[in-house]
Design brief:
By secondary structure, the chain is mostly helical. The protein has one domain. 78% of the residues lie in helices and 0% in strands. The chain contains 15 helices and no strands. α3 packs antiparallel against α9, α4 packs antiparallel against α8 and α6 runs antiparallel to α12. The longest helix is centred in the N-terminal third of the chain and has 26 residues.
Amino acid sequence: METKKKAGALVMLSAVLWGFAGIFATEAGKLGLGSLEVGLVRTVFSTAVLFLLFLLTGRQHLKLRKWSDLKLFLPMAILGYSVQNVLYMASIAELGVSAAGAFFYTYPAFVLIQSRIAFRQKITKKKLVVLLMTLLGCAGVSGIFSGGLAQISTLGVVYGLVAAFFFGLYGVLGKKALAVYSSETVTFYTFLISSVAMLFIAHPVDTAIKLARPEVLWLLFWVILSAVAPYLIYLRGLSQIDPPTAAILSTLEPIVAALVGVLVYREAMDPFKALGIVLIVGAVLLLNAKGRKEREKERG
Protein backbone atom coordinates (compact mmCIF):
# COMPACT_ATOMS: atom_id res chain seq x y z
CA MET A 1 0.00 0.00 0.00
CA GLU A 2 2.86 2.39 0.86
CA THR A 3 4.45 1.63 -2.50
CA LYS A 4 1.23 2.58 -4.30
CA LYS A 5 0.99 5.80 -2.27
CA LYS A 6 4.51 6.78 -3.31
CA ALA A 7 3.73 5.87 -6.92
CA GLY A 8 0.61 8.04 -6.82
CA ALA A 9 2.63 10.91 -5.38
CA LEU A 10 5.15 10.56 -8.24
CA VAL A 11 2.37 10.73 -10.83
CA MET A 12 0.92 13.84 -9.17
CA LEU A 13 4.39 15.43 -9.08
CA SER A 14 4.79 14.74 -12.79
CA ALA A 15 1.41 16.40 -13.41
CA VAL A 16 2.53 19.49 -11.48
CA LEU A 17 5.68 19.73 -13.61
CA TRP A 18 3.71 19.22 -16.83
CA GLY A 19 1.60 22.17 -15.77
CA PHE A 20 4.62 24.44 -16.40
CA ALA A 21 4.77 23.40 -20.08
CA GLY A 22 2.77 26.49 -20.98
CA ILE A 23 5.67 28.69 -19.91
CA PHE A 24 8.00 26.71 -22.19
CA ALA A 25 5.59 27.11 -25.12
CA THR A 26 5.24 30.84 -24.43
CA GLU A 27 9.01 31.41 -24.21
CA ALA A 28 9.54 29.34 -27.38
CA GLY A 29 6.88 31.40 -29.13
CA LYS A 30 8.84 34.56 -28.32
CA LEU A 31 11.67 33.11 -30.42
CA GLY A 32 9.34 32.79 -33.37
CA LEU A 33 8.78 29.04 -33.11
CA GLY A 34 5.50 27.58 -34.38
CA SER A 35 3.62 24.75 -32.65
CA LEU A 36 5.34 21.98 -34.62
CA GLU A 37 8.73 23.57 -34.06
CA VAL A 38 8.02 23.78 -30.33
CA GLY A 39 7.25 20.06 -30.35
CA LEU A 40 10.47 19.35 -32.24
CA VAL A 41 12.63 21.39 -29.84
CA ARG A 42 11.00 19.84 -26.78
CA THR A 43 11.52 16.30 -28.07
CA VAL A 44 15.07 16.67 -29.44
CA PHE A 45 16.30 18.62 -26.41
CA SER A 46 14.78 16.02 -24.09
CA THR A 47 16.51 13.19 -25.96
CA ALA A 48 19.86 14.98 -25.79
CA VAL A 49 19.52 15.70 -22.05
CA LEU A 50 18.57 12.09 -21.27
CA PHE A 51 21.41 10.71 -23.40
CA LEU A 52 24.03 12.84 -21.63
CA LEU A 53 22.50 12.12 -18.22
CA PHE A 54 22.53 8.33 -18.68
CA LEU A 55 25.92 8.39 -20.40
CA LEU A 56 27.38 9.95 -17.26
CA THR A 57 25.30 8.28 -14.53
CA GLY A 58 23.87 4.99 -15.80
CA ARG A 59 24.78 3.60 -19.21
CA GLN A 60 22.65 0.52 -18.55
CA HIS A 61 19.59 2.68 -19.26
CA LEU A 62 20.79 3.15 -22.85
CA LYS A 63 21.07 -0.57 -23.56
CA LEU A 64 18.47 -2.83 -25.14
CA ARG A 65 18.40 -6.57 -24.57
CA LYS A 66 17.75 -6.99 -28.29
CA TRP A 67 17.03 -4.55 -31.11
CA SER A 68 13.69 -6.18 -31.83
CA ASP A 69 12.51 -4.75 -28.48
CA LEU A 70 12.19 -1.40 -30.25
CA LYS A 71 8.71 -2.59 -31.22
CA LEU A 72 7.75 -2.01 -27.58
CA PHE A 73 8.50 1.69 -27.94
CA LEU A 74 7.49 2.40 -31.56
CA PRO A 75 3.69 2.70 -31.12
CA MET A 76 4.17 4.47 -27.80
CA ALA A 77 6.55 7.03 -29.33
CA ILE A 78 4.88 7.51 -32.71
CA LEU A 79 1.20 7.39 -31.71
CA GLY A 80 1.26 8.12 -27.98
CA TYR A 81 3.68 11.03 -28.19
CA SER A 82 4.43 12.42 -31.68
CA VAL A 83 1.04 12.06 -33.42
CA GLN A 84 -0.75 12.96 -30.20
CA ASN A 85 1.24 16.21 -29.95
CA VAL A 86 0.58 17.14 -33.58
CA LEU A 87 -3.16 16.47 -33.25
CA TYR A 88 -3.41 18.39 -29.98
CA MET A 89 -1.67 21.39 -31.56
CA ALA A 90 -4.06 21.10 -34.54
CA SER A 91 -7.01 21.05 -32.14
CA ILE A 92 -5.70 24.20 -30.42
CA ALA A 93 -5.41 25.89 -33.83
CA GLU A 94 -9.06 25.04 -34.58
CA LEU A 95 -10.66 25.58 -31.16
CA GLY A 96 -8.28 27.63 -29.03
CA VAL A 97 -6.38 26.51 -25.94
CA SER A 98 -9.34 26.29 -23.52
CA ALA A 99 -11.74 24.24 -25.64
CA ALA A 100 -8.98 22.00 -27.03
CA GLY A 101 -7.83 21.30 -23.48
CA ALA A 102 -11.35 20.32 -22.44
CA PHE A 103 -11.55 17.67 -25.18
CA PHE A 104 -7.96 16.50 -24.66
CA TYR A 105 -8.53 15.92 -20.94
CA THR A 106 -11.11 13.26 -21.73
CA TYR A 107 -8.12 10.88 -21.95
CA PRO A 108 -8.79 9.24 -18.53
CA ALA A 109 -12.03 7.88 -20.01
CA PHE A 110 -10.11 6.34 -22.90
CA VAL A 111 -7.53 4.89 -20.49
CA LEU A 112 -10.31 3.25 -18.49
CA ILE A 113 -11.64 1.52 -21.61
CA GLN A 114 -8.18 0.66 -22.98
CA SER A 115 -7.12 -0.86 -19.67
CA ARG A 116 -10.29 -2.92 -19.55
CA ILE A 117 -9.39 -4.37 -22.98
CA ALA A 118 -5.61 -4.71 -22.46
CA PHE A 119 -5.44 -5.79 -18.80
CA ARG A 120 -9.00 -6.98 -18.06
CA GLN A 121 -9.19 -4.41 -15.26
CA LYS A 122 -12.55 -4.01 -13.57
CA ILE A 123 -14.33 -0.68 -14.04
CA THR A 124 -15.61 0.09 -10.54
CA LYS A 125 -18.38 2.51 -9.54
CA LYS A 126 -15.82 4.53 -7.62
CA LYS A 127 -13.66 5.00 -10.71
CA LEU A 128 -16.69 6.02 -12.77
CA VAL A 129 -17.69 8.67 -10.19
CA VAL A 130 -14.10 9.93 -9.99
CA LEU A 131 -13.90 9.98 -13.79
CA LEU A 132 -17.08 12.07 -14.08
CA MET A 133 -15.79 14.53 -11.47
CA THR A 134 -12.47 14.73 -13.32
CA LEU A 135 -14.05 15.37 -16.73
CA LEU A 136 -16.32 18.10 -15.35
CA GLY A 137 -13.42 19.60 -13.41
CA CYS A 138 -11.15 19.68 -16.47
CA ALA A 139 -13.93 21.27 -18.52
CA GLY A 140 -14.30 23.97 -15.87
CA VAL A 141 -10.57 24.63 -15.54
CA SER A 142 -10.20 24.71 -19.34
CA GLY A 143 -12.72 27.55 -19.48
CA ILE A 144 -15.36 26.13 -21.84
CA PHE A 145 -18.15 27.08 -19.41
CA SER A 146 -16.89 30.66 -19.66
CA GLY A 147 -17.48 30.87 -23.40
CA GLY A 148 -14.69 28.59 -24.65
CA LEU A 149 -17.08 26.83 -27.07
CA ALA A 150 -18.49 29.96 -28.64
CA GLN A 151 -17.14 28.94 -32.04
CA ILE A 152 -17.10 25.16 -32.28
CA SER A 153 -15.19 23.33 -35.03
CA THR A 154 -16.07 19.69 -35.71
CA LEU A 155 -12.58 19.07 -37.04
CA GLY A 156 -11.05 20.58 -33.90
CA VAL A 157 -13.20 18.34 -31.70
CA VAL A 158 -12.10 15.27 -33.67
CA TYR A 159 -8.44 16.29 -33.40
CA GLY A 160 -8.79 16.80 -29.64
CA LEU A 161 -10.55 13.49 -28.99
CA VAL A 162 -8.13 11.47 -31.16
CA ALA A 163 -5.21 13.17 -29.37
CA ALA A 164 -6.81 12.16 -26.06
CA PHE A 165 -7.18 8.57 -27.30
CA PHE A 166 -3.51 8.37 -28.29
CA PHE A 167 -2.32 9.96 -25.04
CA GLY A 168 -4.34 7.36 -23.16
CA LEU A 169 -2.62 4.74 -25.29
CA TYR A 170 0.74 6.16 -24.16
CA GLY A 171 0.03 5.10 -20.57
CA VAL A 172 -1.34 1.67 -21.47
CA LEU A 173 1.56 0.86 -23.82
CA GLY A 174 3.97 2.32 -21.28
CA LYS A 175 2.67 -0.09 -18.65
CA LYS A 176 3.50 -3.01 -20.95
CA ALA A 177 6.97 -1.65 -21.75
CA LEU A 178 7.68 -1.18 -18.03
CA ALA A 179 7.23 -4.93 -17.54
CA VAL A 180 10.45 -5.40 -19.56
CA TYR A 181 12.52 -2.23 -19.09
CA SER A 182 13.12 0.46 -16.46
CA SER A 183 11.27 3.78 -16.60
CA GLU A 184 14.55 5.45 -17.60
CA THR A 185 15.04 3.20 -20.64
CA VAL A 186 11.41 3.49 -21.71
CA THR A 187 11.52 7.29 -21.46
CA PHE A 188 14.80 7.58 -23.40
CA TYR A 189 13.76 5.40 -26.33
CA THR A 190 10.32 7.01 -26.48
CA PHE A 191 11.94 10.42 -26.88
CA LEU A 192 14.60 9.10 -29.28
CA ILE A 193 12.06 7.56 -31.67
CA SER A 194 9.80 10.60 -31.32
CA SER A 195 12.71 12.88 -32.22
CA VAL A 196 13.28 11.00 -35.47
CA ALA A 197 9.57 11.19 -36.27
CA MET A 198 9.38 14.92 -35.49
CA LEU A 199 12.32 15.62 -37.82
CA PHE A 200 10.07 14.51 -40.68
CA ILE A 201 6.97 16.33 -39.42
CA ALA A 202 8.47 19.70 -38.43
CA HIS A 203 11.03 21.96 -40.15
CA PRO A 204 14.43 21.19 -38.53
CA VAL A 205 16.52 23.62 -40.63
CA ASP A 206 14.24 26.60 -40.02
CA THR A 207 14.02 25.66 -36.33
CA ALA A 208 17.82 25.49 -35.99
CA ILE A 209 18.17 28.96 -37.53
CA LYS A 210 15.65 30.42 -35.07
CA LEU A 211 17.48 28.81 -32.14
CA ALA A 212 20.83 30.40 -32.98
CA ARG A 213 20.67 32.85 -30.07
CA PRO A 214 21.63 32.88 -26.33
CA GLU A 215 18.00 32.59 -25.15
CA VAL A 216 18.04 28.93 -26.18
CA LEU A 217 19.64 28.07 -22.81
CA TRP A 218 16.48 29.33 -21.09
CA LEU A 219 14.45 26.92 -23.21
CA LEU A 220 16.73 24.08 -22.15
CA PHE A 221 15.84 24.76 -18.51
CA TRP A 222 12.11 24.60 -19.26
CA VAL A 223 12.57 21.39 -21.28
CA ILE A 224 14.17 19.71 -18.27
CA LEU A 225 11.46 21.00 -15.92
CA SER A 226 8.37 20.38 -18.07
CA ALA A 227 9.36 17.36 -20.21
CA VAL A 228 12.39 15.34 -19.09
CA ALA A 229 11.65 15.27 -15.36
CA PRO A 230 7.86 14.69 -15.53
CA TYR A 231 8.02 11.90 -18.13
CA LEU A 232 10.69 10.07 -16.09
CA ILE A 233 8.71 10.52 -12.88
CA TYR A 234 5.36 9.60 -14.48
CA LEU A 235 6.62 6.27 -15.83
CA ARG A 236 8.30 5.48 -12.50
CA GLY A 237 4.93 5.96 -10.78
CA LEU A 238 3.04 4.11 -13.53
CA SER A 239 5.18 1.04 -12.91
CA GLN A 240 3.46 0.58 -9.53
CA ILE A 241 -0.17 1.59 -10.20
CA ASP A 242 -2.77 0.90 -12.88
CA PRO A 243 -3.08 3.23 -15.93
CA PRO A 244 -6.61 4.54 -15.11
CA THR A 245 -5.50 5.64 -11.63
CA ALA A 246 -2.38 7.30 -13.07
CA ALA A 247 -4.47 9.06 -15.75
CA ILE A 248 -6.90 10.49 -13.20
CA LEU A 249 -4.11 11.62 -10.85
CA SER A 250 -2.33 13.32 -13.76
CA THR A 251 -5.32 15.62 -14.31
CA LEU A 252 -3.78 17.86 -11.67
CA GLU A 253 -1.88 19.27 -14.65
CA PRO A 254 -4.65 21.66 -15.85
CA ILE A 255 -4.95 23.01 -12.30
CA VAL A 256 -1.28 23.96 -12.27
CA ALA A 257 -1.53 25.34 -15.81
CA ALA A 258 -4.53 27.47 -14.78
CA LEU A 259 -2.70 28.77 -11.69
CA VAL A 260 0.38 29.55 -13.81
CA GLY A 261 -1.87 31.52 -16.14
CA VAL A 262 -3.36 33.48 -13.25
CA LEU A 263 -0.14 34.12 -11.30
CA VAL A 264 2.36 34.53 -14.15
CA TYR A 265 0.30 35.86 -17.06
CA ARG A 266 -2.42 37.68 -15.07
CA GLU A 267 -5.26 35.60 -16.56
CA ALA A 268 -8.68 35.82 -14.91
CA MET A 269 -9.82 33.21 -12.37
CA ASP A 270 -13.59 32.90 -12.83
CA PRO A 271 -16.01 30.82 -10.67
CA PHE A 272 -16.11 27.97 -13.21
CA LYS A 273 -12.33 27.54 -13.08
CA ALA A 274 -12.40 27.60 -9.29
CA LEU A 275 -15.18 24.98 -9.25
CA GLY A 276 -13.20 22.88 -11.73
CA ILE A 277 -10.19 22.93 -9.41
CA VAL A 278 -12.36 21.85 -6.47
CA LEU A 279 -13.83 18.97 -8.52
CA ILE A 280 -10.42 17.68 -9.65
CA VAL A 281 -8.92 17.89 -6.16
CA GLY A 282 -12.04 16.18 -4.78
CA ALA A 283 -11.72 13.42 -7.41
CA VAL A 284 -8.08 12.81 -6.46
CA LEU A 285 -8.96 12.68 -2.75
CA LEU A 286 -11.87 10.30 -3.43
CA LEU A 287 -9.65 8.09 -5.59
CA ASN A 288 -7.14 7.78 -2.75
CA ALA A 289 -9.75 7.30 -0.02
CA LYS A 290 -9.88 3.78 1.38
CA GLY A 291 -13.14 1.90 1.25
CA ARG A 292 -14.53 -0.32 4.00
CA LYS A 293 -13.13 -3.50 2.46
CA GLU A 294 -9.65 -1.98 2.13
CA ARG A 295 -9.67 -0.89 5.80
CA GLU A 296 -10.80 -4.34 6.95
CA LYS A 297 -8.08 -5.97 4.86
CA GLU A 298 -5.39 -3.77 6.48
CA ARG A 299 -6.66 -4.68 9.96
CA GLY A 300 -6.42 -8.35 9.06
